Amino acid sequence: MTEFILNDRTIRTDAPLGTVLLDVIRYHEHLPGTKIGCREGDCGACTVLVGELKPLDSARGDQVEYRSMTSCLLALANVQGKHIVTVEGLNMDKLSPVQHAMVDESGTQCGFCTPGFVVSLSGCCLSHESVTEDLAIRAIDGNICRCTGYKSIERAASIIAEKLTRKDVSDPLKWSVANGFLPSYFTEIATRLRAITHPTPLVRARDLAPLLGGGTDLYVQKHDTMHHSPIRSVFNDEA
Ligand code: FES
Ligand code: FES
Questions:
Q1: Is domain 92-182 classified as CATH 1.10.150.120?
Q2: pLDDT in tens for each of the 239 residues of the chain?
Q3: Architecture in CATH of 1-91+183-239
Q4: Which one of 42, 46, 154, 171 has the largest count of C-beta atoms within 10 Å of its C-beta?
């Protein structure tokens, strides 16, 4: 059993641990916003944000830190106890400033790459760094677009960076929710992640299974084999 939070829903699944997160999102959870482009980690169409509890100090406890990742190379085993954010999980009653900037600057044409760009740029809101135009451009350097020629997306990134200059880097999550960049459910995620125990007994029972760190080459070269392989995640193993 793997337990994690997908946007605002807690997911418990018995899917094989070698299943890539992209397939869980699209085919098990029926969220089609995360796109399948290359399945090789090159195009960024499958980008999600991955949030993980990280210790601060004894006085402040812990907090959730987010990174963008390509879900086509991320094994389900590495998702235990984490918060996964897809493009659907960024939606609110009105467009976020990130979504607005992409619309206003014509940053989308066919739209296939757009969810990946929106997720990567939304990751800037959650980073503990001060956002500059350069950092916003770097946030999308793993995303490929075949239509726009990138200039419109660069303009959108520049506008987003400008709007994020006032971000509170000590608590970017709280600031982003308060300023309409992220939905309010984000504020409850840390508490909900603390309630998830891991590794689960079933993961521990696979002690003889090979350890998996990342899937960068394995999933490119042996996708079908990996799907059915009994694996343990180095990130979630107690040993
Ligand atoms: S589908 Fe292209 S990076 Fe994942
Ligand atoms: S808008 Fe078509 S690939 Fe980017």
A1: yes
A2: 899 999 999 999 999 999 999 999 999 999 999 999 999 999 999 999 999 999 887 777 889 999 999 999 999 999 999 999 999 999 999 999 999 999 999 999 999 999 999 999 999 999 999 999 999 999 999 999 999 999 999 999 999 999 999 999 999 999 999 999 999 999 999 999 999 976 554 445 456 677 777 777 888 888 777 877 777 777 665 44
A3: Roll (3.10)
A4: 46
Pocket test for ligand 1, best of 34, 40, 48 (most atoms within 8 A of CB): 40
Q: Which atom of ligand 2 is found nearest the CA of 111?
A: 1
Residues, the chain: 239
134 class by beta-carbon count within 10 Å (0-12 exposed, 13-18 middle, 19+ buried): exposed
> Please, are residues 114 and 232 in contact by the beta-carbon 8 Å criterion?
no
Atom of ligand 2 nearest to the CA of 146: 3
For ligand 1, pick from 70, 117, 119 the residue to mutate: most ligand atoms within 8 Å of CB: 70
Tell me how far the alpha carbon of residue 224 lies from the centroid of ligand 1, in angstroms.
16
For ligand 1, whether the C-beta of 43 sits within 6 Å is yes
* 1-91+183-239 and 92-182 have identical folds: no
My answer on whether omega of the bond before 201 falls inside 30° of 0, hence cis, is no
Helix (H, G, I), strand (E, B), or coil: what is residue 52? strand
